[in-house]
Amino acid sequence: MLRRRTFLGSALGAAAISTLPGRALGHVIVPPFKLFDTHAHFYSSDVDKYPFNARTSRYGPEIMVAKAMRFPQTPKEVFAFWDESGIGKGAGVQYSSTYRFDNRYLLDIGKEHPDRIVPIVILDPEDAKTPATLEQMATQNKIAGVRWTGTPTPVPGAAPGPAGMANNSDFPFLSDKAQASWQAANRLGLTVVLMPIGGDTRGAMRKVAEHAVRYPNVNILLDHIGFPRPEVSKDFGLSPEHYALAKHKNIYYKYTTLLLEQLEAAHVPEKPFLEHMVKTFGATQMTWGSDVGNTPGSMFRWVQIALDSASGLTQAQQKAMFWDTAEKIHVPGGRGPARG
Prior knowledge:
By secondary structure, the protein is of the alpha/beta class. 39% of the residues lie in helices and 17% in strands.
């Protein structure tokens, strides 16, 4: 089980304690296993070699560039956080806010640190070149998967549906034009990380279920557990479409610091939220991600909150969520074609 260790007698201990939430003051949770961080962002201040393309940043391009120049997230910085927090390795998730579709920095550091960084790239799902690029990156760069995110695109001529169930928009990565990219990911046995932003979340979850059936050799990993609204109901805002995903065993759910931020802002306790997600989807379908490089504040603190929220789970469930499942679905180069 997770255990608490008093952090005394060191500058590191004093600094760590000062960042902890009040309920854990003076103690650090130390799990008896390493953690796998499925959501780490890397970026360099070397703009000559790796120029920024920050137009998709939620902060605005100027603020994002200034942040990246002053506080770069290179392996040096991220590994220091990982080592302090007991994180053995993780997925380097391409950061659209700094590099958009230019994956060179991630691929370069992934090559330098193959024992710790497993690359998850971002490519345009509707680009006709993406299937071949995925093939090349799986072979040459040992990527484990691709991340597709964004807002919906209006569908001309489509009529709006009932309130909250609009059908006149679609996400590019779930469109007909994206199917060749999905076919390539299925052939290679890659993980596809999805983050639909805004729009019809329930409709998006229905399409995710359809894609899980259509592409059974793809492991679909839903960023932020598909954005439930934890403050709106006793079951933490999971829609019927979220619940329907549970029967698809190639769909996985990422428990992230972003969710922890939202829970904290809404005054929703983290522990019952996580326990409900594990009860709904199963610990073997869950992973954890720090969102380092994007999340403000003390990363050590956020790791401690995540671990504390899992303290009611069994040790087997904890290890599944914080290591085993992530290790299983982040396969460098992909798993290859399905057998049988």
